[in-house]
Design a protein that fits this description.
3 helices; 4-stranded mixed sheet; rod-shaped
Length: 425
């Protein structure tokens, strides 16, 4: 052994281990060494303590020349603690060396295109929230997650209903329905009575099926008589005519001629009328009694008459009824006249009649009275023989008491000699 002047063995690297026992004779000054003079490596990482910048490296960790543990992915977390040893460059990691997922969506920040996704939201590979129905509204805020493709939606992801009729635009065949209108499943306004006019504009919403209507949905009344066409049995009634419930013009006197053309609107029931509603039977004095039934054919037209055409105070003068001179025997010329009178009276069997006999003033008044009575009875008997009720005929002779002409003339006396019928009731 090499010794110094005092005979003591040299310790060239001054590590307190004599050269002869020093396996590491060039130990750096001040380094702690073991019994063999070799510098200590306390953390056993293969780097002597004097060169070890990281003297407490964990056992088994790979270190660099300075004794510091390696960080292969350069994320600031040593390999021994790094649970994600292949983190991308520049990625922010947690204490275990794994890249952060700040919004907890399962996509690391470095790949997350949507780093503020709401908690619990489903995302795609890029970390962006799903929009399952592709309506532009993310699932987390989409209140209508199954919107049909291509539909326009509101901020809640629900399809628009532009006309607010309860039918979404994609299914709405009538997208401009008026506000508050009732619609069908296609969004078209209802036409409850099927008249072609929508309910919102229909002023007559219960029109009968099949009826023609105007723009307001009200049934047409083509002849403007106040009766709708569907119930109008007379659809061409003239303007202004009064009609019944079936739209047919009134015939107030029931003569078969409508009021609008009836020139005689108060014709008696049962009267045969002409085309203008007037009595079709000859009535020369226009008293409403046909000439064939009129025992007073010259009654003034403005007088009220009875059933046989005579005024209230008018006696029926049986003109042409004559007798043999100073007798009650009828002349042959009288019979047709009495036959006609009898025919009329048979039509009115309820009439009570006085048969009045009259004479002129020639001769005795007493004889004239008896003669007039006899003549009245002769006429009564003839009428009864022709079918009149004897109980309704009362013969009365007035003699010369009721002249109707001047007895001083021949013509006047002839006029006074007469038989009259007087309607009693």
């Amino acid at each position: 052994a090499a010794v110094d002047a005092s005979g003591c063995e040299l310790d060239d690297d001054k590590d307190s281990v004599k050269n002869s026992a020093d396996s590491c004779p060039e130990t750096v000054a001040g380094a702690a060494v073991d019994a063999t003079g070799c510098e200590l490596d306390d953390d056993k990482d293969g780097v002597k303590n004097s060169a070890d910048s990281c003297p407490e490296t964990v056992a088994g960790a790979a270190v660099d020349a300075t004794g510091c543990e390696l960080d292969d992915d350069k994320d600031g977390v040593k390999n021994s603690a790094d649970q994600c040893p292949e983190t991308a460059d520049g990625a922010e990691v947690n204490a275990t060396g794994c890249e952060l997922d700040n919004d907890n969506d399962g996509v690391k920040n470095s790949a997350d295109q949507c780093p503020t996704t709401v908690a619990g939201a489903s995302v795609n590979a890029e970390g962006c929230e799903l929009d399952s129905d592709n309506d532009g509204v993310k699932n987390s805020t989409d209140q209508c997650p199954t919107t049909v493709a291509g539909a326009s939606v509101n901020t809640e992801g629900c399809e628009l209903d532009s006309d607010n009729d309860g039918v979404k635009n994609s299914a709405d065949q009538c997208p401009t329905t008026v506000a508050s209108a009732s619609v069908n499943t296609e969004g078209c306004e209802l036409d409850s009575d099927n008249d072609g006019v929508k309910n919102s504009a229909d002023q007559c919403p219960t029109t009968a099926a099949g009826a023609s209507v105007n723009a307001e949905g009200c049934e047409l009344d083509s002849d403007n008589d106040g009766v709708k066409d569907s119930v109008d049995q007379c659809p061409t009634t003239p303007a202004g005519a009064s009609v019944d419930a079936e739209g047919c013009e009134l015939d107030s006197d029931n003569d078969g001629v409508k009021d609008s053309t009836d020139q005689c609107p108060t014709t008696a029931a049962g009267t045969e009328v002409d085309a203008i509603g007037c009595d079709a039977i000859d009535d020369g004095d226009q008293d409403g009694v046909a000439d064939e039934d009129d025992l007073c054919p010259a009654t003034a037209s403005d007088n009220a008459v009875n059933a046989v055409g005579c005024g209230q105070d008018e006696n029926i003068n049986l003109q042409g009824v004559n007798f043999e001179t100073s007798s009650a025997i009828l002349t042959a010329d009288s019979l047709p006249i009495l036959d006609a009178a009898a025919e009329t009276l048979r039509k009115f069997p309820e009439l009570k009649i006085e048969v009045s006999g009259h004479t002129d003033s020639a001769g005795s008044a007493q004889i004239n009275q008896r003669l007039s009575q006899a003549r009245a009875e002769t006429v009564r008997d003839y009428l009864v023989a022709q079918g009149s009720d004897a109980a309704n005929l009362t013969p009365v002779g007035y003699g010369e008491e009721q002249p109707i002409a001047d007895n001083t003339t021949r013509q006047g006396r002839a006029t006074n000699r007469r038989v009259e019928l007087k309607i009693l009731e």
